[in-house]
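Can't paste images in this forum, so I'm doing it all in text. The chain is below; anyone willing to post the predicted structure tokens underneath?
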Amino acid sequence: MRLVVSRRGHMKKLKVLSPFNGISCGRVALERAGIEVERYVSYEIDEKANLVAKKNYPQDEFSVEDNELNFHDIPLMELIKQYGTPLKITYLPKISQQINRAKRMFNVAMAKVDYKGSYNYCYCTKSSHFSFVLEEAMKNDIHLETSSAYDIHIINALYDS
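Text version of the structure:
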């Protein structure tokens, strides 16, 4: 694990892969040090340690079976052997799950404070402008937010199709 520091000395959020995670002591240390973590993915073959880590930091999308790391029941080593590394995976069902999760959270929060206004989920195209990602996001009755003139062409093409 290494820390990434910007030129001005402000620490960026970390993306951490912890291949020998134990009971997630590394994550606890990062939290106690006040270091922000954008994403923490862990792997541990010791089942008892894994149970402790999963209880404190659930990672539903990752599992370990026969000492092999799986992502939503997809064996990652097979993909790595076929496509090499680095490997970026976009799991389309997760996009819809996260959009609907955010909508539910806002609905619950709005109901708690008796908010009478409306809420529109806006997908930020700069997070991923690939057509297959935007098409998946658009299945969820959302709005699009863009900060790039280039993305307007993508949005128009999606609208036309």
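Residues 2 and 66 are 29 Å apart (CA to CA). Residues 92-112 form the longest helix (21 residues).
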